[in-house]
Amino acid sequence: LNSANLKSRVTNASVNNHTVKLVLNTSWTEMGITYNNRPPGSTLVSEYIPNTANVWQTINVTSGASSKMGQNFSFNITSLGTDPSWYAAKEHFRSYDRPELVLKVNQ
User: Fold this and answer.
1) Which residue, 78, 99, 75, 91, is CA-closest to 26?
2) SS3 per-residue string spanning the chain
3) pLDDT digit string (tens) for 30-76?
4) What whole-number distance in Å separates Cα of residue 76 and Cα of residue 22?
């Protein structure tokens, strides 16, 4: 794996630092997950501040993705303050604003 970048459209900016952590528990489902039962993050993969709205935030997650090649894995994004950011979801009405995991691999 040469690189892995998580691209998400920021819809609400934040002044707080955010962390991206690898999630080891991959048994959660989209229909069953809530804030209260979300699996915790483990290994820190990246930190960033999403301080501009209506732009793409590209987050380097290569270290997390490369450690889980060939396996299911998830990431957890958490605001370290009281000002969380918001992102367009995979269900966003504009398909071009949906998040992407962009992988570049050796060929």
Assistant:
1) 75
2) CCEEEEEEEEEECCCCCEEEEEECCCCCCCCCCCCCCCCCCCCEEEEECCCCCCEEEEEECHHHHHCCCCCCCEEEEEECCCCCCEECCCCCCCHHHCCEEEEECCC
3) 889 898 999 999 999 999 999 999 999 999 999 999 998 889 899 99
4) 6
